Amino acid sequence: MKLTFLGTGTSFGVPQIGCGCEVCRSPDPRDRRTRVGAVVETDGGTRLLLDTPPELRLQLIACGIDNVDAVFFTHAHADHIHGIDDLRAITVRRAGPLPMYGSEGTLQHLAQRFPYIFDGSMRPLPGTSKPEGDARIIRDGEAVTIGDATVTAIAVPHGPFNVFAYRVGPLAYVTDAKSIPDSAARTLRGARVLVINALWRADHPTHLSIPEAIEVAGRIGADRTFLTHLTHDNRHADLEAELPRGISPAFDGLTVRID
Ligand SMILES: [Zn+2]
Ligand SMILES: [Zn+2]
Ligand SMILES: [Zn+2]
């Protein structure tokens, strides 16, 4: 299995508009972070897209990914969904609409904000096209199979509501979590690779902080843990040097082989 980090930045992205801090001016390409998304590719060639961040088109081009078999949404915050229109380039080459999974609430938000993608009765004018989505509800604890991939949804708190983490075989992908309840930790345990969000060094009301993410990594016990949803608070090289063994900051375009 191969994991590709499309984007690893917090909702502002890094560099942040109007900021002249050291990290936002860093010449290190790993300090340029687009909004959070990832692609998982199985050995059988099944490709799953996790979220559709605002820079989706640029991310897929940069990573050389021209097709996916399904999309799994973690939640409906703008930084995770506002690139959904870029899926048109993929759906125009498909026989049918692209399966898009998420919680009932997430799919309701998507249908309200992007009705033209999900309403089959809204047809594009002759000679034009639109993205075609097939909304499919997945519930907490439920597993669905796409090709040779089995994906399990796991609800985790993101402040006042839950988002979905996803377990795909040896991979556990958790973004925008504020905490990991024991029930969720049980489903995440046994993963070889854990991706976990980490925002500030100080506490944040809706996200794990870096010290909290390190604590979660210890509880899950994956061989390798990658931090994502990072801010301009940390220069990549400095964070990499100070994290405990087995934990690294992810960066845009990073690919991880998981056997
Ligand atoms: Zn900055
Ligand atoms: Zn969020
Ligand atoms: Zn987010």
Structure annotation, total helices: 8
Q: Tell me the radius of gyration.
A: 18 Å
The CATH superfamily appears as Ribonuclease Z/Hydroxyacylglutathione hydrolase-like
Small-molecule components bound: zinc ion
Number of domains: 1
At CATH level 2, the architecture is 4-Layer Sandwich
Give unreliable regions as ranges. Answer: none
| Largest sheet report | 7 strands, mixed
In the CATH hierarchy, the third-tier topology is known as Metallo-beta-lactamase, Chain A
Order of strands, main sheet, comes to 6-5-4-3-2-1-14
Structural class of the helix and strand makeup? alpha/beta
Query: Quick check: average pLDDT?
Result: 97
Q: Report the principal-axis shape.
A: globular
**What is the share of helical residues?**
10-25%
Topology as H/E string? Answer: EEEHEHHEHHEEEEEHEHEHEE
Features:
259 residues; alpha/beta; Metallo-beta-lactamase, Chain A; seven-stranded mixed sheet; 14 strands; binds zinc ion
